[in-house]
C-alpha cells in the first residue's frame, strides 16, 4: 500500500486509535487536539501533533502547517451540540473548509452519523438512498455539513455515517442500567464497535474509495428491550425497564453497500 500523508482532525476516543492504526499501516500522520496536554500523548505515538480549535468565526492554531503536504483528511469532529445546544457547528466547518480549499488536500473522509435519518413508525430499513430527514438539531446540522462537502467540487469527499459507537468500556448498556420508563423499547438497536469503525476507515483509505455516501452499522438489530436487558444480565448490572409501546419509533440501518464495496466483515460482535 502506498504511504500517504494523512491528517486526522480530532484525535480523541476514535481518532487516536485510528491514527495509531494508520501509522502501523505505513502512513505519515498529523493529528489535532483541542487539549494542550494531549499533544504530548500524540507525539509519543508517532503522530505529529497540532493544537487546533474550531470556532464559528475562525480556526485557532496553525491550520496552514497542519494541512501542508497533506494528501487525505479524516474529519472526525462530533458536533458537540448535546453539551452546547446553541452551538453552530456548521459555521465551524465552514471556517475549516476555507483553509482546506487553499491547501492541496482534496481527499476528505467525513465522519458523520446515522442520526441524519429520523426514527419512524412504522419502522423502516434505511439505506443510502433514504432521504436525510433528521429532526434533531445535531442531525440537521450534520445534513447541512454533508451538503457543503458534497457540493464542493474541489474535494473528493466520502461521507461515512456511523451508527451508535461503542466499545467494551463505553457502552450505552452501562448508562441505561437501572433506569426506568425508557421509551421505544420495541425499537431496534443500531450500534457499531470502535474497532470495526477503525477497520472501515483504514480500508476506505487503502482502496481510495472517494465520492461515496456509506452507512456503517453492525448487522444485528434486536429490540432495545431485549438487547440491553441481556447486556445487563451478562455484565451483572441492574436491569433497565423499558416502555414497550405498540408504536415504538425507530429504524434499521442497512450497511450492505459498504460491506459489498469493501468485501467487509465485522470482526467485533455486539
Query: How would you sum up the global shape?
Result: globular
Radius of gyration from the alpha-carbon trace, in angstroms: 19 Å
Task: Give the beta-strand count.
Answer: 13
Major sheet attributes: 7 strands, parallel
Characteristics:
alpha/beta, two-stranded antiparallel sheet, 13 strands, globular
Outline the structure in words:
By secondary structure, the protein is α/β, with parallel strands linked by helices. The chain has nine helices and 13 strands. The strands form four sheets. It has a seven-stranded parallel sheet with strand order 3-2-1-6-7-9-12, sandwiched between helices. Helix 1 crosses helix 7 and helix 4 packs parallel to helix 5. The longest helix has 14 residues. The model has no long low-confidence stretch (mean pLDDT 96).
Quick summary:
The protein has nine helices and 13 strands. The radius of gyration is 19 Å and the shape is globular.
Topology summary:
Layout: E1 5-9, H1 15-24, E2 28-33, H2 38-44, E3 48-51, E4 53-54, E5 59-60, H3 63-67, E6 72-75, H4 89-101, E7 107-113, E8 124-126, H5 137-150, E9 156-162, E10 164-166, H6 172-176, E11 191-193, H7 194-206, E12 213-216, H8 224-234, E13 251-253, H9 256-262
Parallel strand pairs: 1-2, 1-6, 2-3, 6-7, 7-9, 8-13, 9-12, 10-11
Antiparallel strand pairs: 4-5
Helix pairs in contact: 1-7, 4-5
